[in-house]
Every structure is written in structure tokens, then in C-alpha cells.
């Protein structure tokens, strides 16, 4: 199983993700970092009508933000644009 598949499996299962893993998932699905403000990282996607704001909780991603990203990927039926 590739690193990409493991990340996606963790996302879908609701497991805890590191902040770096959440950033990698966003980029895998075509989001790009638009700007940062303090600890907030704002990502945008051409098919998504609203930006995604994430911020770290120590080294980890905040669980509610992981759920938001997962739900957004499903809602907009986004597909991976690249493999790692």
C-alpha cells in the first residue's frame, strides 16, 4: 500500500492526522495554499466554492478540520490529482 493510500485510508477512517498529513491530503486532491495568516493556512480549490482554513494543534491537525476536509472531498466528489 502506498503512502497516498495510507493517508486516504486514515482520512476516511476518522483517525488522527498530523498537520503535515492533512496538508498533503489537501494537495493530493488539488487544493493549493492561497495564504497564511498567523497559524491559519487557507487552501482553495477551483471546484470548491469556499476556502478551507486549517491550523495546527501542536503537531496534529484539529479533528473537526479533518472531518471538514473529508466531508468537502465527498461533497464535491473531488478526485486525487497526483500520487506520491
From TrEMBL:
Leader sequence segment: none
Gene3D superfamilies given in the database record: Hypothetical protein
Keywords assigned: Endonuclease, Hydrolase, Nuclease, RNA-binding, Stress response, Toxin-antitoxin system
Descriptive protein name: Predicted RNA binding protein YcfA, dsRBD-like fold, HicA-like mRNA interferase family
A Gene Ontology molecular function term of the record: endonuclease activity
Family per record: Belongs to the HicA mRNA interferase family.
Domain of life (superkingdom): Bacteria
Pfam families, per the entry: HicA_toxin
Amino acid at each position: 500500500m502506498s503512502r497516498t493510500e495510507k493517508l486516504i485510508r486514515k482520512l476516511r477512517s476518522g483517525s488522527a492526522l498530523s498537520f503535515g498529513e492533512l496538508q498533503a491530503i489537501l494537495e493530493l486532491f488539488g487544493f493549493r495554499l492561497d495564504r497564511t495568516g498567523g497559524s491559519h493556512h487557507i487552501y482553495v480549490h477551483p471546484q470548491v466554492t469556499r476556502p478551507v482554513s486549517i491550523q495546527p494543534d501542536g503537531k496534529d491537525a484539529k479533528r473537526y478540520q479533518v472531518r471538514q476536509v473529508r466531508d468537502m472531498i465527498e461533497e464535491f466528489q473531488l478526485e486525487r490529482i497526483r500520487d506520491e
